[in-house]
Structures are given as structure tokens and as C-alpha cells.
Amino acid sequence: MDTxxxxxxxxxxxxxxxxxxxxDLAEKLLDVVELADIVxxxxxxxxxxxxxxxMEPHSIDIGLFNGAVRTSxxxxxxxxxxxxxxxxxxxxxCASFGGIPGLANCFTSEEILxxxxxxxxxxxxxxxxxxxxxxxxxxxxxxxxxxxxxVQALNQVVDVDYFLPGCPPPFERVLDLVTLVKNxxxxxxxxxxxTTLALDKALCFECPRQQRMSQQLSxxxxxxxxxxxIDPDKCFLExxxxxxxxxxxxxxxxxxxxxxxxCRGCFGPVQDMFDQGAEAISAIGSLLGDNDDYKPQQLxxxxxxxxxxxxxxxxxxxxxxxxxxxxxxxx
Length: 331
Prior knowledge:
Layout: E1 5-11, H1 17-23, H2 29-35, E2 36-40, H3 49-54, E3 60-66, E4 69-71, H4 72-84, E5 85-91, H5 93-97, H6 109-119, E6 134-137, E7 140-143, E8 147-152, E9 162-164, H7 171-185, E10 195-196, H8 255-258, H9 276-285, H10 296-306, H11 310-314
Parallel strand pairs: 1-2, 1-3, 3-5, 5-9, 9-10
Antiparallel strand pairs: 4-8, 6-7
């Protein structure tokens, strides 16, 4: 088949690392160019939003959407791309689960704007002006995107066909996406809609340290990584370091673990997990204490003190899709 597929790439509420991960393909980018014509990628090529608006529904074969949805502009982009793409891919942790931007759901939009435009030490704003969706200046109406009350993942606003997690997606998983593009072009069978392009097992199953883990694993106390010398051959949990591996999908190539740092959970929950953070708390909580002398009345207060950032630890990437996903003010 000589006809290339049409590929679109869009950047929403994210840091830009997902776009860089595509560039990290290096010479493999030539494989992408051979398979697909990139018809929309405004961060890297000279495309405008008006170009996307002019495209017909279903005229794009595959769309990659990276970033969470926090503003009206990002929602419009998601709706536009979904209408024009036959296949929609949530690319990266922010699109897949809300990602680190989702931690902003701990605060109301009013609190965020007040902090940024009034309360920070470096802010000089005596009139306490905050951005608004529209304002008239010299007889002309200027507009900004609306700042929504909460961060949402892509599948919370549009239907998503495939998920490619990671912060950012690692080289090997991006190659899986290239294979999907190739299979689509050749008319081969594709994975079922809703598939995550990663392993269906927890990271612990492929962790190189799991074979050296103690039979009776216990966590007598909690440490932060800078507080101890981390044994590069020993399970992080056995060393009192919170590792999200038991509740995180594998397939990342355990890059963090190879750098002697515990998993932070960027690949999101294992299939059929209802809430990644709750699952991790349950799994790790069951290991707390010395098996020979477990005194929860003494241990739990100490653990609570030692665990400095529970929300950022257990919901770093998935708060937007958690059971309790945002701060709500009862009015």
C-alpha cells in the first residue's frame, strides 16, 4: 500500500515532554515519515488551529493528544481532534490520567489564580488584576480561554481508542505506537478499543529486584530517598522507601529503578484497578511494621509523620481520575 495515513499531534495541558519523546525516536522518525503524513503538529511545524478547524470529520486517521484538559481551548482542541480523527490516542500520563497537572485539583481555581496573580513574593500587582475570559480594551474585546474548575484526563471529555502512558512515554512504547500506525496502514487487526499500549501486569513482575526480595516483606519505617543510602540490589519497600510498583502498570522499562529511584506511578493503574492511589495505600499499608512485633498504635502515627506528601506520593499522576478527584467547596 502506497497511501500514507494522516497523523495529527496536539499539545494541551502538559510540559512538552511528550512531544520531545517523539523526537527522541531519532532516525526511527524516518519510519514514521514513511508511514504517515503529519497533517497537524503546531508545536513542531507551521500549522495553525484554523488548519485543524478546516479539516473534514474523520479526515485524519490517527490523532495523538498529549496533556490534560484544564481550559476551554484545550477542551475545544480535544473535541475538534476527536471529530476529525478515526483513532484517538491519549499520549502520555497527562492525557491518560490527568498527570501531574491533576494535582491542581487540590485547590479551587480561585485559589490558584489568587496565588499566582496576588500572593507570590515576586508578584507586583497592586490592582490585583486577574485574567478573565473577556475584557474590553480601547473599544476592542480581548478574550482568553476559560480556566475550568478542575483538571480532566482526555477520556473524561471525549472517547479514547488507545492509551499510551508514561511521563513521557518511553522509546519502546512509542515504537509500539509506530507499529500500530504501520498495522493500521496495512489493514491489519488492531487491539480492541480502550487498550493501553503497555503490559497488563504490575511493574513488580518485571522489576529486576523482585527475585531478590525477602519472603516475608515488611516495612518497619518510612524514609525519603535522600535520607538513606539506597541499596541498588534491594527492593525499595524493604528499605522503607515508598515505591508505586505494586499498583503501577509495567512496560516502562523500569528507567527510574535503573537509576536507583523508586517508581512514582507514571504508567498508571494496572488493568481493572479502580483507584491506583487507594490500591497502593492498601498494598503498602499491609506491609507496614515488623512481622515479629507489630504495634499499629505506635507505628501508624510515626508513619503519618514520616510520609511528608501522601497525596503527591500516591496520586502523583492519577488524582484527576481518583474516587475523590478534586477539592469541592460546599457553598
